[in-house]
User: Fold these one by one.
Assistant:
Number 1:
Amino acid sequence: MKWEENVRKVVPYTPGEQPESKNVIKLNTNENPYPPAPGVARRIAELEPEKMRLYPAFPEQTELAEVLAAHYGIGTDRLFIGDGSDDVLSLAFMTFFQSDQPVLFPDITYSFYDVWAKLYRVPYETRALDENFRIRTEDYRQPNGGVIFPNPNAPTGILMGVEQVEEIVAANRDVVVIVDEAYIDFGGTSCLPLTWKYDNLLVVQTFSKSRSMAGMRIGFAMGDPKLIKYINDVKYSVNSYTMNYAALQLGVEAVRDRAYFEECCEKIIRTREQAEKELGGLGFTFPKSYGNFIFAGHERMPAKEIFQKLKENDIYVRYWDKERISNYMRITIGTDEQMEALYRALREICG
Ligand SMILES: *Cc1c(COP(=O)(O)O)cnc(C)c1O
């Protein structure tokens, strides 16, 4: 077909499987195993269908913006809210990565980055993690068109200290540096305070993991008001209403209940520590994780085989048949019960 010559062809990002069956123990997409804060259910009962007749409010003028800004001790002029952090990151690629120089990110990282780079025709180069899967800060000292990396990194779970993040930001004052903190609440320290010192740093977070709201699609970015203005200008040139009325209302309750949020994160951290012991005892090795997942390989059995056998047992984890990481699988931290079922299955498979 002739018209196909003029079609934009992309290889899309492939998210983890969303199985139909209810019997599956789903440890493959880093969702939170606990429900959102109880206030969310209460607020659902208060949603007004009448309001759905209208276009939703602009996120930056909502109660959600106010409670989020207050929670992080910033002004609303330093906050951008979007339709999940994938929306925020995609807009950030469009807004901030406009140089002819390549944008830099690690070779093993969130696999959406190269998809956006190709989609928006942003030149990019990857920098290899070291043999222990660590980001080498010195790799980000060459001239570039911007830098992006998750901290903790995905899918390794390895956390970089704030000082090392600062090293990268300070070495790249002429471009925008984006730190994707999707998993920062599981034991890491946010580099948010650096945004006061560095106007070229954008910190991105999400409600999908630590706030148990992947299905509501809420993500946000924090940084200098100038960065926020630029990303807003692009957003309002693409779609003025990315966030729906319900998400804007329900997100508020997830932020307000600080105690519930902290308790959920602590539970996941405790389960993760237990998982380290159990998996270690079964012959797995893994870097110390600061996410709600563990990136583990087995000393004898190929990861692909374990992944497939787990699947036959209705336990889904994530596996990438990709260079350097094909002998690892990423296991999301579930409830203690779900994890017990995982250990039982693994004892059968690799015991
Ligand atoms: C999960 C994840 C995101 C995206 O999350 P949203 O659900 O779109 O908010 C972004 N970056 C990393 C590294 C992630 O793991």
Note: The radius of gyration is 21 Å.
Number 2:
Amino acid sequence: MSAHELYGLTRVINAHGTYTPLGVSRSAENVRRAVCEALSDFFVIDELQATASGVISKLTGARAGAVVHCTSAGVSLAVAATMTGHSIEKIRALPDTAGMSNRVILPAGHAVDYGHPIVQDIRLAGARPVLAGFEDACSIDQLEESMSVDRAACLLLVSSRLTRGEPIPMREAVSSAHRHGLPAIIDGAAQDMRIDELLATGADLLIVSAQKYLAGPTAGLVLGDPELVGAVRAQEKGIGRSMKATKEGILGALAALTDRKDFDLADWRNRQEQKVLEFVRHAGRLPGVSASVDPDKAGMPFPRACLAIDPTSAGMDAASLVEKLRAGEPSIWVMLSGDTQGTLVLELVPLEAEEIGIILSRLASILVR
Ligand SMILES: *Cc1c(COP(=O)(O)O)cnc(C)c1O
């Protein structure tokens, strides 16, 4: 009996992307098996993490790696590591940062909210976020200006649907941090397909989610400088206790990363495009719907389907359509575009043909009268 049957849980078709309130992603057979096997056994966790570091290095080219509970934990622990290094006194003192440099610079447009404000991940370690520049733009000069006082680290995010303002040239931003003697941390949560490119910026630590497009169990991968990665691990004697990776998280994440070896990006990208094109061709025939293929503006290698709703011919606005999709059985979750009111955005990456068919027939049953 499935958990849905056993507990009477809502069945969901998730066209909302790698969305935490819906369980993020679907893991493949290899990953599920690794998690399942890990659960029935014991491990020397330090040895498991050391092995994880080796596997992560071999597969990504990073100099070292560790697994933590999630990306959010990775941000707090990376910030903590830059403040404490390996000092056990400092590690045990956090979030009290007396006697430590505790200011963390981030460009104002990178102070995103992915369900909670990212600056809270910084504050959780006891550090104080300092926003550089303006929300709509932060120049390298503005970034450097904020670095000229006593600072602990610089945190940068990869441009995405969440960040605001002009994209910041990452390589230059990392170099400025280094000129001021600051380590640079990159939060690349959803960017597991661009690990090479992000490591090449020279960042000291890169944090990537294991459960977003990598489709592993909930975990965060912290990659980069061996000293700092070691200091991240050392936080387990302090605030990191509540952010530790589980054995099944570590082994599942490694299985997901290992599966990436055989990943054919060109073929995958092509299949994602076809899936969206086909969906858009059908959805565009519905009354009140103008359907289009929307490439990801921040460079993720797949498009999404956009359905602009004309309330007069559709008989309802986009927000009501989103509600009606969600209220049905199974419950269908799509995004409502924030900038152009009246547009549904669907991410089809994890969906099977049958589920896409259900979305189309639900849309038809709501819109065709
Ligand atoms: C999703 C996301 C996170 C949080 O990831 P978790 O693994 O759920 O903690 C952090 N930063 C960014 C930019 C994200 O998109």
Note: The longest strand covers residues 289-295.
